[in-house]
Amino acid sequence: MRYLNTYDFPPYRPPNEAESALIRITRGCPWNRCTFCFMYKDIRFKAKSLEDVKNDVNKARQIYKTTESIFLGDSDNLVHKELPEIVLYIKKTFPEVKRITAYARAKTILKRKMEFLKAVRKAGLDRLHIGLESGDAKVLDWLYKGARPEEMIEAGQKARKAGFEVSFYVLSGAGGRERWKEHALNSARVLNKAKPDFIRLRTLTLKHGTPLKDKLGKGEFEITPPLERLKEVRLFVENLTVEKCFLASDHVTNYLWAGGAVIYRGVAGKLPEDKKTMIETLDQAIGLIESENLEIKDSNRLYEEGFFTAL
Ligand code: SF4
Fold first, then answer.
1. Residue 4 belongs to a domain
2. Cα 37 to averaged position of ligand 1 atoms, centre (Å)
3. What pLDDT digit, counting tens, does each position of 60-115 carry?
4. Which of 203, 205, 245, 255 has the fewest C-beta atoms under 10 angstroms from its C-beta?
5. Is 255 helix (H, G, I), strand (E, B) or coil?
6. Using CA of residue 221, residue 34, residue 253, residue 160, what is the dihedral sign?
7. What are phi and psi of 73, to 5 degrees?
8. In terms of residue numbers, what domain contains 200?
9. What is the CATH number of the domain that holds 168?
10. 15, pLDDT greater than 60
11. Bridge partners of 101?
12. Are strands 69-73 and 21-24 parallel, antiparallel or unpaired?
């Protein structure tokens, strides 16, 4: 299918790619089964033809007069057989670009031969954003992530060996009330072995129409309340031993509100240098909630109240 005069760009990108030019290589998610995810549910997966992608790259060039970074959508571009050629074309069309990044599934990284990954890296794709969500096997099962903890470790190591910068997402709250401690400890364990360059925290926000939200409705899943979630993040940070890694909480779902004001914005910093400061920040937020009789609102509550629509 040709996209005529429209410029087909990805509907989602990481927050730190807000200034980036967006180019779509694939549409949707080839897996599309994670129980918490709503992102591509209505999109049938498709790897776009080389011709369509080149057309979009040329149109993007007309829109973005200059850009330092480019993000490639959608969720798992490493499935595209012509990705090395596509990235080369993008680099040629945008010679000024300093960083090209994309989402990637751990399972796809494992399936791809090292030669392919290296070819993609050599062509100019710099960074892979990988959804770990949790390092706990049971939690990964109920999220239906399609990869086990040891596979997540192997995928992270393989991507780094191929020369990519690796950014792993962790879904705070994914363990629910039942497994927040295991979720924290095992996520730290996996990341300590995978040794990513970045760790990005998101908070599980249950959207209508997702299987996990249905489980919540049936009483089969219990959301981790804000105070326990802060303790979960504290336990997680405390157990991280990674080095030369940046931890970011660059998403509004990590915020906590009380009386209409933000009382917590998440923790961020270099690891291991800023670990102590991050733990102090978490202790302050925990202390505030425990000592004051505050009504805390999190992203789940605000979503239910209609303040957040897409997260
Ligand atoms: S979380 Fe990622 S892998 Fe899972 S369904 Fe959503 S886009 Fe696909």
1. no
2. 6
3. 999 999 999 999 999 999 999 999 999 999 999 999 999 999 999 999 999 999 99
4. 255
5. coil
6. positive
7. -105, 170
8. 129-311
9. 3.30.750.200
10. yes
11. 71, 127
12. parallel
In this predicted model, what pLDDT tens digit does every residue of 210-249 receive, in sequence order? 999 999 989 999 999 999 999 999 999 999 999 999 999 9
The answer to whether residues 108 and 83 touch, using CB atoms and an 8 Å cutoff, is no
> Other C-beta atoms within 10 Å of 264: how many?
24
Out of 24, 32, 145, give the residue to mutate to test ligand 1, the one with the largest number of ligand atoms within 8 Å of its CB.
32
| Residues near ligand 1 (Cβ within 6 A) | 29, 31-34, 37, 39-40, 75, 105, 131
Q: Could you identify the residue written with the tokens 């993609």?
A: 120
The domain total for the chain is 2
Burial of 259 (0-12, 13-18, 19+ CB in 10 A): exposed
**117 and 156 fall within a common domain:** no
Domain end residue (candidates: 69, 97, 125): 125
Residue 3 in domain: no
pTM of this structure: 0.95
CB atoms within 10 A of CB 167: 25
The span from the CA of 129 to the CA of 141, in Å, is 21
pLDDT tens-digit map of 202-215? 999 999 999 999 99
Q: Are residues 219 and 121 in the same domain?
A: no
Secondary structure letter of residue 139 according to DSSP: H
Alpha-carbon distance 3 to 53, whole Å? Answer: 10
Ligand 1 centroid distance, CA of 23 (Å): 19
Place of tokens 């629509």: 309
**Is residue 268 domain-resident?**
yes
Return the pLDDT at 7: 81
Residue 203's DSSP bridge partners are: 172
